[in-house]
Amino acid sequence: MSEAASASPLTSPLTSPPVPHASSALLASLAPLLHEWLPRQRWFAGKGRPVTGFTLVSATELLPLTGSPGLLHLLVRTQQPVVPPQSPGPPPPVDCYQVFLGVRRSLPPALAPALIGRVREGPLAGHTLYEGLADPKLAGLLLERLRMPGTLGSLRFSKDPDATFPTGLTARPLTAEQSNSSLVYGNSYILKVFRRVHPGANPDLELPLALAHEGCARVPAPVAWFEGANPDDLFEPFTLGLLQPFLDGAQDGWQLALKSLSIGWEFAPEARELGQAVAEVHTALAGTLPTLTLGRPQAEVVADRMTEHLEAAVQAVPALLPYAPGLRSAFDAVRELGAAGPVVTAQRVHGDLHLGQTLHGRDGEWSVIDFEGEPAKPITERRQPQPVVRDVAGMLRSFDYAARMNQPWNPAWADRCRTAFCEGYAAASGTDPREQPVLLRAYETDKAVYEVLYEARHRPDWLPVPMAAVQRLATPRP
Predict the structure, then answer these.
(1) pTM (2 decimals)?
(2) What is the pLDDT of residues 112-134, one digit of tens each?
(3) pLDDT by residue (tens digit) across 412-442?
(4) How far apart are CA 323 and CA 449, in angstroms?
(5) Number of domains in the chain
(6) CA dist 99 to 132, 139, 340, Å?
(7) Contact by Cβ (8 Å): 357, 370
(8) Does 478 map to a domain?
(9) Which domain holds residue 352?
């Protein structure tokens, strides 16, 4: 990975052409279909609040709409009311979504599940719209566009100058539950398409680029990526997609752990090796990106932010209310720790680490993927340096999640994995995360609160899993 390739997308502005009147008229004709289709998508973040309108950020024809199929790329902002209207503090930011609209006169039967609807008026009246990434022909076009660096309308395509990838790779979508969309080309590459996009470098591009520059082999190096202009700040474009090598035959860490539980295999050796891999990633990030020391002011900011997360979650999930004082004590302990002097070194971290963000390869080596961070949190917060125990806490919670998925619950399995992971981390980094019990408890508590909010919104049947952790963390062990 060349140094120029790692720097260019994060430092150069991207010109945003004005949205023409014709595009605005086009959005008006598409709005009724988007109003029905968009909230039903797994990656739509504004569930539970009605969509009252759309604002067009950009519209780009990736394939002329006069043909069949055509491919229209949209960045649209959704307008939604704040719920409840009397909530204190500033209103939440307006969400911006990336949409690929396939356009045909008639839809082949194979693409029927991707149907969005038929346009009744405007420039595309009489045409059928569908999810463009579900069409192998259009998905293949996107890969070909990534092969050629340059701009198209408000989009910029970049690639590692040393990378080459073959033509004619067949695209297939991944059906796994995720907050974005992913396409696998052949068995060679995977393209992650970010759906809810934010101004500024997405950590899922920024950190793998930095790790590739540092020579860290634990993370697949970016091959190509594309961005969209931000009309509000040309130096803060939207990261839209990221192409990386596909680790064919690798097993998802979450599924591997569940398999271990179901057949009675011991997983502690794998957990220990995973701890070593995570430590290597942290060491590489600290070696290539700035670090800082958290003192009293920073500790108070961390504690305040965690407390705010808790208060918001209690408002949304009343079942948390009885445990709130005990959970808050974990964050108050961080304030007390900061009052005693410097707390810990902070650096860039993964930010949403769990077993599902890891892959166990055919060679027995662990890889770490998906550096986007927690999607529900602002991207500015996700890009801030954090203590490494934040990632450790996320993985410890993941072992507990896996153990509770198994019936009967196997707490001893989780304890062995948690211990082995920390031992592996200490062996590779020289620092045992268990030597920072106050921070570790605080970050594990903050993660459990996040999980409660997530499960209540998306998977209510899973809510008892993080609630069990809440009960434990609200009453700390001596």
Answers:
(1) 0.89
(2) 999 999 999 999 999 999 999 99
(3) 999 999 999 999 999 999 999 999 999 999 9
(4) 11
(5) 2
(6) 8, 13, 50
(7) yes
(8) no
(9) 251-473
